[in-house]
Design goal:
The protein has a single domain, classed as Growth Hormone, Chain: A (Up-down Bundle), CATH 1.20.1250. The chain has 406 residues and is mainly α. Helix 3 packs parallel to helix 5 and helix 3 runs antiparallel to helix 15.
Length: 406
């Protein structure tokens, strides 16, 4: 195991976190909906929901084919570079946006998000190559931790720019942050080798994907868990991409106030993941997921009623604690169903489910907000996702006999 490769890989998580925090969550959603579209009668919410849904659907549909080409055709690093440059370039072109440029902004954020989300698949695939199996958990956690650090630092960088409404400088700083800190990965990670001809690579990947899908469907408990996960993760993704828009449009948060809020949420999400790590092992991941969904349901209901910035700040801090917990516990619960030796195939399917789940929620939230001209009724759809997913999860029985052990 080479330290240079490990830290280069982890640093990519640090690099792309600026996009996740600033572009996808905090600053750009508000800029696009309020400035570019103008959120009269929820029009901005509708366009933003469409953009996120379309980009995630395209990534989910193309991942199996492109994954096969990358894995077996020796093009993985090149694909990751292309996706990274696509995201960085699209964010840089945000500088051309002005009020009324709805379609241009829509196409740019779809392009940027495809570059970001599509690249993650190739990034994740390096882990088994750069670290032995007994170190996978630790190396993955290091990357996860650096991602939180990157989000925190990137928000601090753009804070003074947000105060002065220097939005073009924000887009350039995020693009530069992503590009510069991703370079070590492309320099130090091993070169790819072509294992199979292109047609055979695609065929093998698709065949494996369909085989895994069939196995999962025939496993009743795993099927029920993934349906539950799809539903409640839809709620989680919707909260992530619409929380800053709701805070700005409904409660009057300014850009710098949003940054302070999400800096705090980053801390509580990190603490949630750390504090609940032991209960996941002791009480079981299902118990922790249930706790997290009860918490998310409660804070979402509270969000429907909040009237002040302070009240929403408290709700957001609680939501952050649940965010870090539900993600790690869900992933751990999923491992209870994976047959030994099928880790890559099953996690590839799990990733596809996660990306697909980001399609319906944003469309529903944006549509309800547009139809009613009010974001509060749209919050009810998120509550429905969480409660439905929670109820379905209660009927899932973990199968620890199938855990990742020989």
């Amino acid at each position: 195991m080479k330290k240079k490769e490990i830290w280069s890989w982890c640093l990519f998580d640090f690099a792309n976190s600026g996009y996740s925090a600033v572009i996808l969550t905090v600053v750009f959603p508000v800029y696009y909906t309020q400035v570019v579209v103008g959120n009269q009668a929820g029009a901005g919410d509708l366009w933003w929901g469409r953009a996120i849904a379309l980009s995630m659907a395209l990534v989910a549909l193309t991942s199996p084919v492109l994954g096969g080409i990358a894995d077996y055709g020796g093009l993985r690093k090149r694909f990751l570079f292309i996706y990274t440059i696509t995201c960085v370039s699209a964010v840089g072109f945000f500088c051309v946006l002005a009020p009324g440029m709805i379609i241009t902004g829509f196409l740019l954020i779809v392009t940027a998000n495809i570059g970001f989300e599509g690249g993650i698949m190739f990034y994740n695939s390096y882990l088994p190559e750069i670290a032995p199996k007994e170190f996978h958990g630790r190396v993955s956690a290091w990357g996860f931790a650096l991602g939180y650090v990157g989000s925190f630092i990137s928000l601090l960088i753009v804070l003074p720019l947000a105060k002065s409404s220097s939005f073009n400088a924000i887009w350039i700083s995020v693009a530069a942050f992503f590009f510069l800190f991703s370079l070590p990965l492309f320099i130090f990670l091993p070169k790819d080798t072509q294992l199979r001809p292109l047609r055979e690579a695609v065929s093998k990947k698709l065949t494996g994907f369909l085989k895994t899908a069939k196995e999962i469907w025939e496993n009743t408990q795993l099927r029920k868990f993934l349906i539950s996960y799809f539903i409640y993760e839809d709620g989680t993704n919707t909260v992530i991409v619409f929380s800053s828009i709701f805070a700005s449009a409904t409660l009057g948060f300014k850009s710098e106030e949003l940054i302070y809020l999400f800096l705090t949420v980053q801390i509580t999400a990190f603490l949630g993941a750390m504090i609940m790590a032991k209960p996941i092992d002791v009480k079981g991941p299902k118990t922790v997921v249930v706790f997290s969904l009860v918490l998310w349901s409660a804070v979402t209901i509270a969000s429907y009623f909040v009237k002040t910035k302070l009240a929403f700040f408290v709700v957001a801090v609680a939501a952050g604690f649940g965010l870090g917990t539900v993600q790690s516990a869900s992933r751990t619960f999923f491992t209870e169903f994976i047959p030994y030796g099928s880790e890559s195939e099953y996690f590839g399917f799990y990733s596809t489910i996660g990306k697909t789940s980001a399609v319906l929620g944003p469309l529903v939230f944006g549509g309800i907000s547009h139809l009613t001209g009010d974001q509060r009724p749209a919050i009810l759809s998120i509550i429905a996702f969480f409660i439905t997913g929670l109820v379905m999860l209660l009927f899932v029985k973990g199968k620890k006999v199938n855990c990742l052990c020989p």
